[in-house]
Amino acid sequence: MTSRSPHNQPSSRARRDLHISSGSSVASVSSAYSVTSSFRHHQNAPWSPPTPSTPKPMLAVDSTHTPKTRGSVGIMIVGLGGANGTTLLAGILANRLNSQWRGPQGQPMQPNYYGCITQLKQKGKFGGVGFKDKIQGLADASMAAVGGWDIRPTKVGDALLAHQILDYDLVRQLKEEMNKVKIFRGVYDPRFIGPSQHSTATHVLSNDEASNDSEALKCLRADIRYFKWRNGVVGHTTVIWSASVEPNCDLLENIHSARDLLEAIETHEERRGGPLPPSLLYATAALLEGCSFVNGGSQNTLSCPGLADLARQQVGVYCLGTDFKAGQTKFKTAAVEYLRTMGLAPRVIASSNHLGNNDMKNLDTAKAASSAKLRVKQDIFAPWEEDIDHKVSIMFTPEINDDKRDFVEYTSHAFLGQTHTMVTYTRASDSVLCVPLMIDAAVWCDFFAGRSWPYEKVAKALAYLFKVPEGVAKGVDPGFFRQMHELELQSMAAHEAKTSKSKDATVKKRVRIRPEEKTTEWAIPHDARIICAGLACVDMQLNHATGGDGGEHIETFAGEKSIGGGSVSMACKTLARLCHGPPLDDEYMQVTPPVVHSVIPLCKIGNDDTGNKLLSLLKNCGGCRNVDTTYTKIARQKDPSARTALAVLPIYQDGRRGCFFDAASNSTFSARELVQMIGSLSSGSTGPMLDYSQMTNDEIDDYRERLEVLTPDYGAFLFGYPHLLPQIQGEALAQVLLEARSIMIDGGIIALDLNGVPEGTFPIREGSIRSLSDLRNDAVIGMALEHVDILHLNEDELCLLTGCEVVGTAESELEDEYAIAMAVNLFLNAGVGVVAVTRGSKGSFVSCNNEERFRRTPMLPNSWVDCTARGSALQLPPGTIINSNGAGDSYTSGLLVASMLRHTGMTVPIRNEDGRDEEISPKSQIPPLKGKLASGKKRMTPYTLYMRENYVTLKQQCNDDKKAIFTKCHEMWENEADEVKSMYERKALEENEADAENEISNRVIDDMEALDSTQQLTSPSHDIEENPRNLYMTNRSLNLESAVLFASLVAAYHIDMSTRDRKHIDMLQLLERSMVFPTGLEEI
């Protein structure tokens, strides 16, 4: 058997060391903090006619504009180096760059999308043809990410030149850029390809890398993940088979289910009775990775019922084919439909076609593959069940290359037994006919996937693309115009279903453009992901409700709104809308990078409409599109009888809320199920979970070691509401937290958010609180406490769990805080790292454990050791409508993010008067801190001197409010004349040279450096390196007071109805308001 092994993948094996990658003409530069993102498209100075000087447009319609984009959709081509793959990539690049070139006769040429109905607008008085302006939400193919596999090592640009299909002047301009595209090693089995291809098949999976189908499948899945990651694909990805036609495989029809399919791939070839075709492995890999698969070849891949079953198990994933209907066959289906519409009776259709491309060369030397091709061509009219004698002859003629010729004679019975004969002759490039169908297939799959349109309906809608629609589309009407009518019906239905959910019928643009250089001062190292697990439901909110005090009278509410509820949904929403900087101009399809690279919800939902709604709410809960619901979608298939939880929540006019809750699947959500989901994260698998109980310890260790390179970086695990999850309590909860710890960087950070603590949890004697022994033996959380790094609970839950008494009056504030501190110490003594208690209008209380406990969790900030912070409640403007639902979840998520943030040491933008960001220029930038002076004391800055001299006055003006002091000083410094700033610069230089700073000054500097350095304003300086890195600040964390205020601000944005539904929250703004001194300034 041939080798099937992983392609050469630096992404999978050396992901953290990868700093520069290029694919689909997209290069991304990353660091441990993802400080900078650049997407460059180079242009080789294409010819363009002279034009008058005009203002530069801001969008990519200008040929001199180089778009910097994430992939709108992903297109992965099996056979990327072939005629179709190279022509497709060249077409997308030419349109993206708006290339200009000379044709064969020297005539000026420009790119277009003729043949791509998803990219064309309607024409003429009555419309028709194009869908671009007819249906909102169709992706822009010019921004698609393109990649794939090939068994030949030829670079894509070189292959395009060798194929001699497109004009040389265009190829010359695109060749260098195309050669940068990575080609993955292909799965190769000589039994499924003609002898003419064997000698060039050198870019293949080796036996050492993957010795069987199962290993090859894992490699293909890793390739797909890497492709989407490297190209930043924001839409749906489609894998298209455009390689040589394979012989038909008889085994496929006996694979009846998804389980049978996966078992067949795991089974040895001799045991299952023969080899499986490579196309089946590509299709399976695509479906398991949440991508669609399109069989553009003639082989019977889609005759495998297991593929259809696997596609049905996921939402918005499709398996389509067979054989693109590009030229002669497309016209046949239109011509025969025309003859039948005239009332004639077609009886004989005799055709021949010849061309000299590589696909025809393969068919010429592989009779079994040739039979597969002829089967498709001859079966196109079978669904009509009419007596049509359809004959096809194919010939390989190398001389004419890709310039296909075909001749067809149509003979029909006419009036009174007479004969009607019609002849057609077509000449066109085979690839130029086929590529538009490939682009449309990917764009349509993205369109329907974004609307979760049913698989069967999508297969019928896209039947027009294929010679013989197979799989779930088998037997559809072969008439071309009837198929186009079905496409219009389904696409319009999907479009209307999407727009009807929103009154303004707005549709998000799928193509996003990043800023050329995005620098951020605070970031989460390693682009670490956050896992959100626990209770999930759909919250049906009854807004502005009356009542809530009991009674039987009728109450009112002002409208209903369904949102994602439970800890998982609320945490995902909070994390998914935190971004670096303000949201960019949507008119230009821009997106600001998220603070959290990816958010992974793990919860149990049912296969019902409520479950579909919850998945959609999770996936679209933030503007950064960084919530990955793949693992929850896969897990939901395991329990077909499960129902999705629903909560009806009256939100009362005073901000309180009621709750009527049907736990549904949460009642049966077990620790075993959650551990399996976590295990799938550790292996990067979305397929069936491995049963470790059937493996030896050595086998488990070996398996985890081999797959460790495929695992993304996870930095935190947030689990919510154990009291409402009866199957994940006590020892089971502890086991879940241990499993989560095992897959995270340095053990990560584990956060536990409590809710639903019942009254009477523990019988308390009056005047005493619970003992440490009692707390450790708590049936729900006791055994898990030592594994918890951040614990959140509200004041009422603290009282229920510990027995502490909080009176809640103004006179009892000191006694209440003492009681809370004593109760919190119980949890610290039980092994919790950080305990956060939210107290509603009284703010929050956060206390941290000692250094020994913090050593067990290296990811927690060392500066928090033995610290306590009391956060005041933020005062919202009078008249603000609030909704407290999820306030604790948002606070916990904010505190978790604050604990993970580290300073990158980089400079940041400053704000203009109009609120926009402007990069700090070297001439106006404060020199970076270079470290300590020779005496060991730290350098003085002009701004520090300015604050020291004005502090006493400001302290009196601001009534000792440290935040107000800093803000006022900041404003004063900003308004000072350049001469004054220059004076302070000279004074700072003199003090640094004299090494005369006293200990008080040093303490002030420490305080200032712990602040967000965006508060440092500009002062004149010269010869400063561009974007210097402040080594002193690098990797510093937020102090606890700042972290608590940050979490409170995040919660405030959540409860304020005017900001609750914002898709983006600028973390920079939150940090500007959160930064406080770690020590007081009274000493000055």
UniProtKB/TrEMBL annotation:
Q: Where is the composition biased (Polar residues)?
A: 1-12
Provide the GO biological process annotations: inositol biosynthetic process; phospholipid biosynthetic process
Where are the residues of the annotated region Disordered?
1-23, 41-66, 912-934
Which keywords belong to this entry? Inositol biosynthesis, Kinase, Transferase
Q: HMG box domain: which residues?
A: 935-1003
- What InterPro entries does the database record attribute to this sequence? Carboh/pur_kinase_PfkB_CS, HMG_box_dom, HMG_box_dom_sf, Myo-inos-1-P_Synthase, Myo-inos-1-P_Synthase_GAPDH, NAD(P)-bd_dom_sf, PfkB_dom, Ribokinase-like
| Enzymatic reactions | D-glucose 6-phosphate = 1D-myo-inositol 3-phosphate
MF (Gene Ontology): inositol-3-phosphate synthase activity; kinase activity
Q: Where is the composition biased (Basic and acidic residues)?
A: 912-921
Q: Which domain of life is it from?
A: Eukaryota
User: In which pathway does this enzyme or protein participate?
Assistant: Polyol metabolism; myo-inositol biosynthesis; myo-inositol from D-glucose 6-phosphate: step 1/2
EC assignment: the record states: 5.5.1.4
Database matches in CDD domains: HMG-box_SF
Cofactors needed by this protein, per the record, are: NAD(+)
| Family named by the database record | Belongs to the myo-inositol 1-phosphate synthase family.
Name of the molecule in the record: inositol-3-phosphate synthase
From which organism does this entry originate? Seminavis robusta
